[in-house]
Amino acid sequence: MCERMIPNYRFEDETRIIWLKDVTAFPYVRETTYSWSVGIDTSDPVDGWSRSGRVLGYSRGFTADRYIGRCRVWWVKPHDRSEDPRGPYRDSAPGEAVMVASIRAGRPSLVHPQFCCCCEQARAS
């Protein structure tokens, strides 16, 4: 398995994961980083989420930057396997897909095996 590395992301700043939905039955979730203005007092950093998709959870922690917050967000799109089992990802996974069981605060998630471009590269070397 390959870890999903996120350039310039400080995993060590995360202290916990907040789940908005039980994701244990999901075949995968998408993982993305999200930034927001800390100057605006929000109880939930994903209040301003504007992508098409449903947010399932996010990480919380501390940031050295007083003005910009950054977290990982786990989400699904309407055509993901959990939402549409016969859709385009019935036998595969999108590039952002990570294994739900691998999600931990402070640690990179594991890339879903059905999206294995980095895993194939690792095996070849």
Task: Give keywords.
5 strands; five-stranded antiparallel sheet; mainly beta; 1 helix; single chain
Secondary structure elements and their pairing?
Elements: E1 14-19, E2 29-37, E3 54-61, E4 68-76, E5 97-98, H1 117-124
Antiparallel strand pairs: 1-3, 2-4, 2-5, 3-4
Strand order of the largest sheet: 1-3-4-2-5
Gyration radius (Cα, Å) is 15 Å
Beta fraction: 25-35%
Order of helices and strands: EEEEEH
Structural class: mainly beta
In percent, how helical is the residue content?
under 10%
Instruction: Give the oligomeric state.
Output: single chain
What would your notes on this structure say?
- With 125 residues, this protein is mainly beta.
- The protein has one domain (11-124).
- It has one helix and five strands, in the order βββββα.
- A five-stranded antiparallel beta sheet has the order 1-3-4-2-5, with no helix packed on it.
- The longest helix has 8 residues, at 117-124.
- It is globular, with a radius of gyration of 15 Å.
- The two termini are 14 Å apart.
- The model is unreliable at 118-125 (pLDDT under 50).
